[in-house]
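Good morning C.,

I know you're traveling, so I'll keep this short. The sequence:
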Amino acid sequence: MDGCRKLCLFCVAGDSMDDGTVQDRDGIFFASRPQMLNLSVCVTLEAAVMITFCFDCFAEMRTRNTAFKQAVTLFLKLYPGILIGGVICYVLALLLFSFPGLDFGSLSWIAAGVTFLAVGAGSRLLRYAIGDKPLRLEVLFIVNIFIVILSIIATGY
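The tokens, ready to paste straight into the viewer:
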């Protein structure tokens, strides 16, 4: 197995292939309960940060604005969401298995361009579909609550 594929599999699985991951031509699936629990913790922490962002946006009318509150607000506004990196690595690994003859560099640049355009277009479309900012924050809050609930349910199998 070449180094690029091994790196992508490491990004997706979080560990080496002989440690509880199963690979086939449709993708990589977790067969190890400890890896599922670790991933569930990461998803729950990400959702907690997004829920905190929602609460912080609704708390703009605070009476005392301390330096700590301003620092937390700045961090939450600049936080990009870390789990999207794992999703992009997973999609890139699927693309590598789907198009084995293509160059890794060109496939990566194409995937990066499509991801950039899809995120930008999706953001604009969501802003157009749900024009009211408090309603968008409420949708984000409800989606993250469902993510937390589903991550708790998924680890209880």
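Safe travels,
E.
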